[in-house]
Amino acid sequence: MAPKSDRQKKIFVLDTSVILYAHNSIMHFEEHDVAIPITVLEELDNFKKGNENKNFEAREFIRLLDSLSDSYMLHEWVPLNGDNKKLKKGKFKVLMESDSMLDAIRIFDERKPDHRILNAALKLQEEQVHEKEGKRVILVSKDINLRLKAKSLGLPAEDYETGKIKNVQTLFTGRTEQDKVAPELIDSLYEKNVCSREAIWGKEKPLANSYHILKSPKNSVLAYYNPRTEQAEKVEKTQVYGIKPRNAEQTFALHALLNPDIRLVSLQGVAGTGKTLLALAAALEQRSAFRQIYLARPIVPLSNKDIGYLPGDIKSKLNPYMEPLWDNLKFIQSQYRESEKEYARITEMVEKEKLLITPLAYIRGRSLSNIYFIVDEAQNLTPHEVKTIITRAGENIKIVFTGDVYQIDSPYLDSQSNGLSYLIDRLKDQPLYAHITLEKGERSELANLANELL
């Protein structure tokens, strides 16, 4: 059913994946109406217990629905603006399960929740055709396959767009390369370590905590724009806990990781660019400034099954997920002989839990003060999860997110909607934040070959 105009009111039917992505998604459809199939409520009932983000989202949505429907029946249209008449919101209702002319259960030969959701949306679409001012019905889902099934049945379907960045190809990289810089300015940076903003960039103001490769026909220098002093500062190559930066972008990353004025850092790049290794080495270098170092990562269940399906106790279940983090720690430790104090210090930090490697779900509810907090594989987080982590920041905390926005393991996220992309896009040019995109693989020539050609 084609829309009569761009301003025609619509009814958006939300599936379970949208609710688990953002519990307040129901409030983000402007003046349009929203419908929730009863099957979605049944599925949310299975998700309401637990400590993972999806469990939190399920509980919060159930509470939100309860507050909105305080004096209404849910099979009727309920105002989304509640008591606030100034809000320009539509209405919502719960769709009861009913047969439609096109039966998704029969067509796809399986009675599963997705097909029951499709039937509810198809029935609503049929009803709107006969309404005097019929509205366009659109299924909203984070599940690509469900959207394809809907479209095959003539039901318009869309992804949930709130929090999605427009173009990941133009995502902020945190660094620039500038040619034709006057040689005397570069000489001045080498001599004095600082140079005025105007001398290099004129009236143009660089983004806060941005990094620059400044080149002249004779020489070049690595520079950092300090938003507090509004000056360009020379960036030196720094070795941390036996790890040396191998290129300009790794040098920039270490500068951001070691800078006490920058409380939030994100590192984006393909496998082998050194994201986690650099973050961990920088954390060890600054161990005395923090009470604890947390290294965490989200658990993306294998084959979409909960980790409870894996054999063994909780430690055994989590080992496959945590092993890459231990590999990085062992690599740093291998830079020293067993007789050296740095080698022994790492072992001692792990034994005394000064350095703690743990799944991200186990971090929730803990105090995040006096902590160096590294979140690995951040591309598998939702924007709301990233916000939840950052908003828990207390005194003397540094948070580092690492990941590759193109390597998504979650079936309901992509390069535009994941939490790492959202963070980079929204927080650029903030004085407390720095970002670097790492592009050069430094793991090995073989790994680089695979990244480039396979």
From TrEMBL:
Stored InterPro entries: P-loop_NTPase, PhoH, PhoH2-like, PIN_dom
Protein name: PhoH-like protein
GO MF assignments: ATP binding
GO CC list: cytosol
PIN domain mapped to chain residues: 10-148
The keyword Lyase is annotated on this UniProt entry: no
Keyword Heme: no
Entries under SMART domains matching the protein: PINc (SM00670)
Transmembrane residue ranges: none
Keywords of the record: ATP-binding, Nucleotide-binding
Alphabetical list of Pfam families matching this protein: PhoH, PIN_4
Entry's family note: Belongs to the PhoH family.
Organism of derivation: Cesiribacter andamanensis AMV16
PANTHER family named among the record's database cross-references: PIN DOMAIN-CONTAINING PROTEIN (PTHR30473:SF2), PROTEIN PHOH (PTHR30473)
SUPFAM superfamilies, sorted: P-loop containing nucleoside triphosphate hydrolases (SSF52540)
Lineage summary: Bacteria, Pseudomonadati, Bacteroidota, Cytophagia, Cytophagales
